[in-house]
Amino acid sequence: MSIQNNDDESSNVDYIDYESYLQCIPNESTIAREEWEQHQVKDYEEFAAQEQSSWRQDEIEQLNQIDTIAKIEEEEQEQRQNADQLQVQQWEQQDLEAYAFVEQESFIQDEMEQLHQIETAQTIHDDEQQHQGNEQLIDREQWEHIEFLVQQSKQPYKPYC
Length: 161
What we know:
mainly alpha; two-stranded antiparallel sheet
């Protein structure tokens, strides 16, 4: 829209752009529009700040959750390691007990073998002593018989009547 100036005194025709004119002079609708736009910008900025704060809160919560999960995983890993170490210790203790049992069994078997050898040696010794005693007894009996025969040979012969 343009306005034409029909002034005869003026040889120049001035054209004024109405919209440019309206933009140059502040009016109530322009001021209200600027205020509304500023208010909208402010609302958007506040909303963006709230969203950013919310994102930061969410990020902090996520980091805390990640830390908590990591700590739980570390504790579980430590518990598994402790359980594994305890199991190994129990196995080692069982192995030691089994080894001690085997050693004790071996010791007992050795002792029993030694006792058997001692008993066998004692039996052989007793048998030898008895044999020697029997030999001495036989020797004594034979000697007595020989002495008897010698004594009889020294006596005159008496026939049996």
